[in-house]
Amino acid sequence: MQQRKRFALANKAFRTDSSGFTLIELLTVIAILAILIALLLPVFQRARKSSYSSVCLAHLRQLAKATLAYADDYDGCFALGFYRHQDGFLTLWTLHRPYIKNETLFLCPLETKPIALSHLERLAGMPLMESDVAVALAPNWCLFVNAVAYPDVPAVSLSQMVYPSDTVVWFDGWLMEGNRARFEPGSSVAARHGDSVESLFGVVIRQSRVDRLQAVALDGHARGFPARLRPDVAREGRDFVQYMARPVALDGRSVPVWYIQGGMYHGKTSFMGWPSRPDPDTGRMLLRCYPRPFYCEEW
Known about the structure:
six-stranded antiparallel beta sheet; 23% strand
């Protein structure tokens, strides 16, 4: 009997000692976990963004190699940007497809809303005679002649590039509407690789941090460029606030304006120059890119 009593008392003591966490202890653990998550989440996000940036950089290098491979097969000439084919038109993207592994090279994982090439049909007024593809990396249009708008312009030759290490060929960008009257789509830089900027109800009041964008030159080297965002509002004086209109992308989005910082492209909103075109004054062909220093060659 006494042995049973001793066993019951020991069992009761065991149950008392293993009763679990109190409410205060549980709340303390939850608070500590919340603090750790708040501290580590930005680190994980930066690591993920850094890995995506590496993927974008690799895509840019592959596109530069594909561009040069095409030029090697066609007497050192770059592909046409746009040209007529039967009752529609084709783009430089389809011309470079045989030189790339897959169409994901036209994308950047950091861009959640890439622009489909089918939006070009609205500007061209004719169907796109190639499989539709979404793109997030833009070309330098001064290298790829728009034969739809300028059918008599010859293709640009690689030998005409005086500064290949300073001439960007592909970069982070949006496809823009450009000149609708002559079907001249454009592109602007899209900084995707840095810290996001602060906005109030979707309107950028000020630039709090500097973002980064990536580009690849003709010689194959790729690098990042710092970029500064133009605020959506500009204050003149003490009380007057002017709202700046955002440019319109091919898919109808109003995209922010980024300015390249540093180097020969400082203050530019794109790495591209003017598409090759005839000079209305002299009748000669003009090839305008942004190397050092800016120049305008006649050929």
